[in-house]
Amino acid sequence: MYRYPDERGKFGRFGGRYVPETLMQALEELDEARRTILPDPAFRRELHELLTTYVGRPTPLTYAERLSEAVGGARIFLKREDLTHTGAHKINNALGQGLLAKRMGKRRLVAETGAGQHGVATATVAARLGLSCTVYMGEVDTRRQRLNVFRMRLLGAEVVPVTAGSRTLKDAVNEAIRDWVAHVDDTHYLLGSVVGPHPYPALVRDLQRIIGDEAKAQLREATGRLPNVVVACVGGGSNAMGIFTAFLEDDGVALVGVEAAGKGLDTDAHAATLTKGRPGVLHGMYTYLIQDDDGNVQEVHSISAGLDYPGVGPEHAFLKETGRATYVAVTDAEALEAVKLLARTEGILPALESAHAVAEAVRRAREMDKDAIVLVCLSGRGDKDVETIHHHLGGDL
Q: CA 286 → CA 3, 197, 275, 377, 391, distances in Å?
């Protein structure tokens, strides 16, 4: 039976807790809350009620019939996290951690965001629960996701542009951690992915597992069987762990994570951590990183702000090394082609993150029999990316 992390927060040799002494008590407090409050029936009822009446769960499972016909191979099904309140899977985790923080007596949330979807989800939850909220965002990302910056401010959150380093998600995480260290008594750091020190990777995974549990039941009802392949994009990797977890013990189901190959794996402009990186320590965890020969974390690139991160969740590193999941990479250009294909065959504009998964699903489905099934986690909708997509495709439509 799959039981990870262990009591030290490890997934094999990955994960753990590599943090300053000042954070250890806060992490112990959070882990205690995870183990005692999350299973509490009253907490589960409150979370379920809000997931149903506020978030809009269960999200639909859509058979992408015209896309499947255009591809000419396996049937492709889409798990529609793009149809949640705020438009991405991020709201599942933000709501769960927001309720947990309130139970722990915290009055303030801090968060980091890359594509803005986690920031919007956190700002939304803070408004709903009556908590104050500060969101750190790399200056580069504030420009390419300016609509989401406005949405967060409209929801009452303070958005702090980060001008250090590469001015993207990695640097936003650094600033959020510094804020948390300084205000740990009344503040909860609402981490948005399956990254960071223990217990965050397990906490976020467990709050996102609802994606896979719903999809598994819905696919069985629709087809009477499990998928052959489950495909999801991977930056930090929360939507992927959310859908993978339900299928980890189903040996006949292949799990495929899709990273950002950016401008190509033969360049330095990519974010393919598991494909091109090697193990090291970042943001309190031991995992795969993009780093130079001296161990310095390098800048990465993706057209998708949400995949523009030099690390990855430690459970993904474990699944890669054990062979339970396979990780591949899709370029910016391939993701843009997937946006066009899904838009024109299904009337759905995917987020650029999700488009990476769609591109890989199409590639695999073409080589599979027509009775095979490919399940794709459509992690978010593309409204936030329209300006970026227009910039790259405006003259090519």
A: 19, 9, 16, 26, 37
- For the full predicted model, state whether its pTM sits above 0.90: yes
Instruction: Judge whether residue 150 has pLDDT over 90.
Output: yes
Tell how far CA 248 is from the center of its chain: 18
Catalytic residue among 302, 304, 354, 379: 379
Q: How far is residue 169's CA from residue 383's CA, in Å, rounded to a whole number? A: 20
Which of 81, 106, 112, 193 is labelled catalytic?
Answer: 112
Helices 90-103, 21-36: crossing angle, 10 deg rounding: 100
Task: For residue 193, name the pLDDT band (cuts at 50, 70, 90).
Answer: very high
Tell me whether residue 90 is one of the annotated catalytic residues.
yes
The active-site residue, picked from 79, 90, 216, 384, is: 90
Positive or negative: CA dihedral 236, 196, 174, 160: positive
Which range among 172-181, 201-210, 293-302 has the greatest average pLDDT? 201-210
Q: Could you confirm whether 166 is annotated as catalytic? A: no
Name beta bridge partners: 326: 256
pLDDT score recorded for residue 143: 87
- Annotation says 102 is catalytic: no
User: Integer distance in angstroms from the first to the last C-alpha of the chain?
Assistant: 50
